[in-house]
Amino acid sequence: MGARPAPGSADGPPPRPLLSRLAGARDALVTVALSAAAAVAIGIVRAPAAALEKRVAETSDVYVLPPPDEVVTLSLGYRSALADLLWSHVLVSQGLHTMERRRFENLTLLLDAINALDPTFRDPYLFADALITFQTSTTPHDEVVKAREIMERGVQNRPLDGEIWLALGQFVAFIAPASYLTDPAEKAQWRLDGARMLARAAELGGNDANISWQALGGAGILGRAGEREAQIRFLQRTLAVTDDEGLKQQIRAQLDKLLGEQAAEAYRRRIDGFSEIWRRDLPFVSKTAILVLGPPRDPAYCAGGAHADEPRCATTWSAWAERVAGER
């Protein structure tokens, strides 16, 4: 066995040389000095940069997309996806532009691209007037016309959407003439056009009384414009499709004033007769369904032609209405 090492003489790490310790301290000092210099430099540059940023503001937008037809090609078949992406960009950018108090100059171009990508996407049509006119500066006349153009594109691509017809009619009949148009003749024409659009909205809003109630103001515009026959047709068509009892009473009261007592009574007879046939024959179907199916007809009673001119032998509702009117 070897001799034990004397106490205190065990092997251990060799002591660090003096030059190594000095090099480590120097590196630490350099790091601290560089950090301090960087902090000072940032402090010196930051204030002028902030002041410059306040003075220099973005004042215009750059539209980088090609024309709408080319955007469709650019989508590589993902038309709805790209339309959703652009619509999200429109909503976010509208908020940013409003916060920065500057006009969203590319809005109508983006809406054109979205419409080309997905013609039946309804949200851009419903919100086009609000987005285009809700700006921090005065809306120019050409953009007001453009808003109408986009919404008319909506009713062309979604002709049975009563809500889009309602939004279009309200903008053309009320909002634009009252807030953005200045020429009296143009105002009058827009109001008249808008009233006809509201009439179509009322026809399509049979199951949604809210649409019909809101569209009813168009009848008054037609009346003030001297379009009495158009006003009567507006009210009659709305009455024919609505199931809202309060609205029915309102329309009947207006028709009584417009048609006179005798004509109003004849019209009420036709409406009440139709409702009675509907309840008696097919009460479980909708009004639209019974209008499509036509009036009930008894083949045995109507055979031979002896009763061909009676209402109960009519094959269409229009023929039935004519025969009911002829019975007076």
TrEMBL record:
- Protein name as it appears in the record: Uncharacterized protein
